[in-house]
Specification:
By secondary structure, the protein is an alpha/beta fold. Helix 5 packs across helix 6, helix 7 packs across helix 12 and helix 9 packs across helix 11. The radius of gyration is 21 Å and the shape is globular. The N terminus is likely disordered.
């Protein structure tokens, strides 16, 4: 059975299976034991350690009412099957990148990253204060899953390439590891794309199975050692201007919890969202210095590459939402706010960064 078929079937059966697996009520006293599964390797900087920290945060906030058994990516379920595990009741809570279940819920891209879309702060604003959370809840409801925003990696890197990219012609025929809608866009430009789990990226680059690869940014890329296999580093990522993360909870389990414990889960997710977003910014900055010390420089994609990718992005996004009608609502809400941000940001943060560089670059 293909992975997409499996996920689709398990997603549809999630609510019924979850009701059976999680029928017992929350304990009135004593301690309730819950399972939290992550999509990323245990101990991996940022995305991996965030899930483990989230588990500890929930325990601490619960005042002894909850204990969390944490499982890293692949320990209880495969990395790309966290959503189906939570939907079916195999796990109570999950930590994930929403687009890992794009085969089940197509609109998850909007809650992870859209090419040339919202950055970390803008995405959080849309989810917390705009229509984002309401629409996200609607998208996951048929699968018996509740989503909570759990942070963001910030602007990601465009990737590591074995050869320099000097024009759009250099992309044609390349084999690249790239996640999300970025793969759809690059395929329009003649790139052969694949998605592999983090642990397989370096071996694929080293062996020549791929000519280029992206993962997250300097902190995670340094941890994987990607600079040793492909020395040409490009930034920023067109496809992930901010990579959103989620905490997901089985709805049947959530409804058995007291209001206090429900609020514990919500508060833990929001606290972790702030922690991981600021942590990524700090350690990406420090890791970039380490990479520079190793002789790595960051290049911007040439103008003709940006223009070609930009045109392909418009074409892909025009066709992307598809059915059901909810997808169109999510797309419209996201794009409306994106247009407002595109007008606002250059006059504030954008200009601030330019001015700051003038003041401090040569100090």
């Amino acid at each position: 059975m293909r992975r997409r078929d499996f996920l689709s079937k398990t997603g549809k059966l999630g609510a019924a299976a979850g009701a059976s697996a999680l029928a017992s009520p929350a304990l009135a006293s004593g301690t309730l034991n819950l399972k939290l599964v992550g999509a990323f390797p245990r101990g991996f900087p940022g995305v991996g350690t965030s899930a483990e920290r989230l588990a500890k945060r929930i325990e601490a906030l619960s005042d002894g009412k909850l204990t969390i058994n944490y499982y890293g990516g692949g320990e209880l379920v495969p990395p790309f099957e966290v959503f189906s595990a939570v939907s079916s009741g195999v796990a109570d809570i999950g930590h994930n990148a929403p687009y890992y279940q794009v085969g089940v819920v197509r609109s998850t891209m909007y809650f992870t990253a859209i090419p040339y879309g919202l950055d970390a702060t803008e995405q959080a604003g849309w989810i917390y204060y705009g229509d984002g959370q309401k629409l996200w809840n609607e998208a996951y409801a048929p699968h018996g899953v509740l989503p909570f925003y759990a942070g963001n990696s910030g602007a990601q890197a465009g990737g590591w390439f074995k050869k320099p990219i000097t024009s759009i012609d250099d992309l044609i025929g390349l084999k690249m590891r790239i996640a999300g809608l970025g793969g759809d866009i690059l395929r329009k430009l003649g790139v052969a794309t694949v998605v592999t789990p983090p642990a397989e990226i370096y071996p694929a680059l080293q062996s020549g199975a791929v000519d280029a690869a992206e993962f997250v940014g300097p902190w995670n890329d340094l941890a994987l050692g990607l600079y040793r296999a492909a020395p040409n580093y490009y930034a920023p990522a067109f496809h992930e201007p901010g990579g959103g993360l989620e905490m997901i909870v089985n709805q049947n389990r959530f409804e058995t919890l007291s209001p206090f414990l429900q609020n514990v889960l919500k508060s833990a997710a929001q606290a972790e969202a702030e922690a991981i977003t600021s942590e990524f910014r700090y350690y990406n900055t420090r890791a970039m210095k380490t990479l520079r010390d190793k002789g790595i420089t960051v290049s911007a994609f040439p103008k003709d590459v940006v223009e070609a990718i930009g045109q392909a992005t418009k074409e892909v996004l025009q066709e992307y939402p598809g059915e059901p009608a909810l997808n169109q609502k999510i797309h419209a809400s996201y794009m409306e706010f994106l247009k407002e941000c595109t007008s606002y940001a250059p006059k504030f943060e954008g200009q601030l960064y330019k001015d700051r560089e003038i003041v401090w670059a040569n100090s």
